[in-house]
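Summary for the steering committee. One of the milestones for this cycle was to obtain a three-dimensional model of the protein with zinc ion bound, which we needed before selecting residues for the alanine scan. The sequence and ligand used are listed below.
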Amino acid sequence: MVSVTSRTGRIELGGGCRAWIAESGGWGMSNAGLITGRGESLLVDTLYDLRLTGAMLDAFAPVTATAPISTVVNTHGNGDHWFGNQLVAHAEIVASRGSLADMRQVGPAEMRALTGADSPTGRFARRIFGRFDHSDLEPALPSRVFDGETVLDVGGTEVRLIDVGPAHSAGDTIVHVPRAGTVYTGDIVFAGATPIVWHGPFGRWLAACDLLLGLDADTVVPGHGPVTSRRAVREVRDYLEFVHEQATARFAAGMPVMDAARDIRLGRFADLDESERLAVNVHTVYRELDPALPPLDGPGLFGCMAELCTGS
Ligand SMILES: [Zn+2]
């Protein structure tokens, strides 16, 4: 039984599980979780800067005073799920192999370069990331890497880590607590916002949704958005299928990628926040259909979204 005391902040989920839900939506405003057993806790994700991570750790402090954080799991390698690691560097930090590769590729320095660029892409990046402080971050990378699936014992509580990626990113770990019927999904689930397929393939993400739908877990803590249920997993699945189908039809008709992104009408998905992510998603579909298409780096992908936002 989920007792939701407020829509944001610290939320008690029962069975030793808690969620930290970001105070608002938007790019980089991510969630975290705490799983507590006898005398120790596991933290699911840190946040995008030290201020946000510190506030989250303070909110969990009444619990962690007697059950300290012994393990941190970073669900994936996007900065909004690990840039705060240095505040919990005393713990063992665990991530999938793919996630570690992503962290090595894009750290705080790369984000500072992106938001500092004197270009339309830089302006877009400053608009969406300007609220975060990436100035004094020292990357604290995982000290333990796993492949596929692993099971942890957190003070007598079984915690299953399953890497369902590559999908959203190069490695996407879901954290399942069978005893509590709770799953922390990282960015495999965006609740109320547009999923973004940085890596793909789409098929892996759809399979990840099916795995979540078949899991014995009624409580779903998404990477972004409020605590939810399987309904949000189905919504993500529907969006991904829709975009894949729409982009594939336009690829077959010979339409250039950005024309396709501008041409797609989102219909019932138009209300999802950050709809500009469609540009990246269409690009990922095109790359699946034509592996000869050159990949875009981070700034290139943000440039496509900036272009879709401004309609230029
Ligand atoms: Zn995220």
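Key point for the committee: The first helix runs from residue 50 to 64.
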